[in-house]
Amino acid sequence: MRSTIAICVGAVPFLYGCAVGGVSPSTSASLPLHPCGDLTSVNCIIDYDSAHVEELRPTSDLYPQLGLAMSGGGSKAAPFAMGVLKRFVDGPAGEQWIYKTDYLSSVSGSGYAAFYMYYKAYELAHGKYAYDPAFPGLQRFFVDSRRLNSNIDAPYFVDVRSQDLRGVNDVESVAESNDGCTRLSVQNYAEPDGHPPSPGVIDRHYANYQGWVECYQDLLMSKHSPVSTSQRDIGNLGGTFASMVTESVISLPLHYFSNLLFDWRKPLSPSQYDYLYGIERTYAYIPEPGTQLPVGPHEDRFRQMVKQFTFADLSTIYTGDEAATNATVGGYLPKWILQATGASGNVGVDLSRAPYDLATDVFEITFDEFGSGRYGYVRGSPELVGLTVPLSVLSSAAFADTAQRSLKYPRAAVNALLQGLNIRWGLDIPNYNQSNLSRVKHSFLIWPFYFLDDDVTTPKGPTIHLSDGGQSGDNLGMISLLRRSVQNIVVVAGENDWHRDEKSDGFISLSSLCSVNYYLVQHGYTMVFEADPRDPGTGPTTPFDLSQSCQWDDKHRSISIPNVTASSENPAKDTTNITPFNWRRRVWIADIVKLKHGATETLTLNHAGPDTAHTPPGLDSVKIYYLMSALDQKAWIKVVREWYQAAPDGTGRPVRKCQGVTTGQSDGLTYSCTLLEYVHDTMVSSVVGGEDGLSPEDRVIAEDSGKWVFPQNSTAFTTYSNSIYLFRAYRDLGWLYANDLLTADNRLATLLKRAPNRRPAGLDGIYRSRTIQASRP
Fold first, then answer.
1. Of 30-44, 227-241, 358-372, 755-769, which one has max mean pLDDT?
2. Confidence class of residue 383 from pLDDT cuts 50, 70 and 90?
3. What CA–CA distance (Å, rounded) separates 4 from 14?
4. pLDDT given at position 160
5. 353: how many CB neighbours lie within 10 A of its CB?
6. Whether residue 651 sits in one domain with residue 622
7. Fewest 10 Å CB contacts: which of 487, 604, 649, 763?
8. Which residues sit opposite 371 in a β-bridge?
């Protein structure tokens, strides 16, 4: 039960007479907040107007030019996002794309990877790490933990200068070698004579940063993750769940009293703390020299981080002196926007199955602004309502919650289970439109009378309930960037969007993409992609208009499966559904275009026309670059066969033949060797007994059956029970696809080659002064 029970028991003296929302009046701001009077006002509510975002912008351009939107999907989305972030951080001075990006938005699991990057940047800005000219700025934190001796010829992940990391095993990670998870540390590497490493020779511990995440990305386990090439390894999962259930049962009396008999909405769920501390342990911690490993998620350092790592701290990386920031962090990072879902009232009795409204229910959290269309946007620090950076990451990723509307099960049953067992992960914050006194009065109301004081249909209740950002319908993180008129949006879609179908090969619903397009249609626009994603990119293509392909009703927003048939003009046309295994567009490009006049009446339900009052400007010049965690299965199988055929019988896998990356002989695309190895192992593990003893006929069945689910593993599975190999496979895929952004089109290539971010003129002194005011309520 660890120390979570102590947290719950220790909370008893503070429950009585407290305001609801988990924030005591003595530590929260003076509420309600008032409307902002002018552009210099802080700690105030901006009138809702999505066509004009009043914030401290990271660019002086009329429209921000480049944004990175990273999707939800738990520990499935996190490594895919980590691979893309690595490619944005990679490269010599002047190439790193991350310092040329204006905004980064994250939802749910991708927030883990963003948390990793921004926390490391914060530590750099505060001088925790000495400057290293070989790996300046953030690059040291994204050095892969593999020891690839093939990197001499073709670098993949590890830099060619990493002499110390080349070992006898081509693809083995320091995380998996000789139980390396218990040997990771940050002790400085030295040459045999005791001197520091010479310039260009990697410090061995740099590989431990990514190695640490590999080891501990299984968030809910006390020990490190298993090493497994199979799809599923649940060796320790039963014990993990047994511990969590026991904790929850012990906490029930306190939960029933404070959150059901009364409506105090205290965060007393032990599994919520397990989840929160697991995220911190994996993505925001590196063991100090001499640390005994493994490190459990419930150490005091993680509880302290929840309280102490604030947005005022994080603002340092946006507001620091330019020379100092360039020398430590490497440059100005994109402004981070965490997307959660902001629900009204007591969501335990909210039984609606209707999708949330993206224009009002996407709750944004940045270092100097937070809120939603429903409640208004606050110009000020999220600390005003008790939100630190870790708590904001938690709220954005709280998918096990009663606000969940995307599950196929009845909401009443889901709510009863989550509330009855005290396993709800959402977080309540004070409603900044209501006074502290009103919350204190609400805390004295007993069941069922407190329902009369909190209507779930209005935004006037005592609290705002934050939960998984994907529950809003935007699991891609696009709405906050569209609201800011970001002109070029790279979408990192690492979500689980595959629907199995017994009558066919299943299909990708693309429901999140259709949900965002529903928002665009409401404003008179639509996304038109360059081609069907199954199109290999050769010959003429037919535009793929989401307004014509998506189907919308009162419960779902998803893509319909086009009835594509072969014809005499195009007999080779793919007639199968769109699946994760026939996806041929590594960078799927779309333009946002205006709908034809009058089209919205037939495309939306209960909607008379475009909502021009709150339409962001410049939408018709926005371009989307969509990176999907899907692949062309047949192409990968072909390259795997070509690769393995080069190995003489009994000699093993010819990794050296691949040299880090390889090019398909027929399609000219680049394939990573380590990912090819994972695909091979996954194919043969589809047959009981694995690779040993397979006949040639059985091997063909294993490779062609399509029984594996990577890269569309279950989101819940990858969060609850992951393996080092699976984490690496998703990260490799994200890194590989992000490489193709440079050649996607001339417009994006020009942006990726532009000068790094600069602090906008006229903002000197304003960033820091506003942030300090906002962080001291």
1. 358-372
2. very high
3. 16
4. 30
5. 13
6. no
7. 649
8. 364, 377
- pLDDT tens digits, one per residue of 664-678: 766 778 888 778 878
> How big is the CA angle at 711 (ends 544 and 700), to the nearest 5 degrees?
105
Query: 327 and 416: one domain?
Result: yes
Domain region containing 640? 633-710
Q: Go through 499-534 and write b for each residue having 16 or more CB atoms within 10 A of its CB, e for each that does not.
A: eeeeeeebbbbbbbbbbbbbbbbbbbbbbbbbbbbb
Residues 556 and 433 in one domain: no
Q: Distance between CA 44 and CA 27 in Å, rounded?
A: 18
C-alpha closest to that of 603 among 640, 644, 551: 551
Q: The tokens of 116 are what?
A: 């990793």
More confident residue, 11 or 222: 222
622 and 638 co-located in one domain:
no
With residue 507 as reference, give the H or E element that holds it.
strand 507-508
Burial class (CB within 10 angstroms; exposed 0-12, middle 13-18, buried 19+) of 571: exposed
CA dist 13 to 9, 115, 191, 300, 440, Å? 9, 33, 56, 21, 16
- Cα angle 152, 153, 157 (rounded to 5 degrees) comes to 70
SS3 (DSSP) at 559? strand
**613 & 637 share domain:** no
CA–CA gap between residue 385 and residue 773 (Å, rounded): 14
Q: From CA 80, how far away is CA 715, in angstroms rounded?
A: 12
pTM above 0.85, yes or no: yes
Q: CB burial class (10 A; 0-12, 13-18, 19+) of residue 386? A: buried
The answer as to whether 744 is a domain residue is no
Phi, psi at residue 129, to the nearest 5°?
-120, 140
Q: 402 and 452 in one domain?
A: yes
Is the distance from CB of 681 to CB of 644 less than 8 angstroms?
Answer: no
CA distances from 777 to 28, 29, 98, 398, 649 (A): 7, 5, 33, 27, 70
- Spatial neighbors of 101 by CB under 8 A, at least 6 apart, are 66, 67, 68, 88, 333, 334, 757
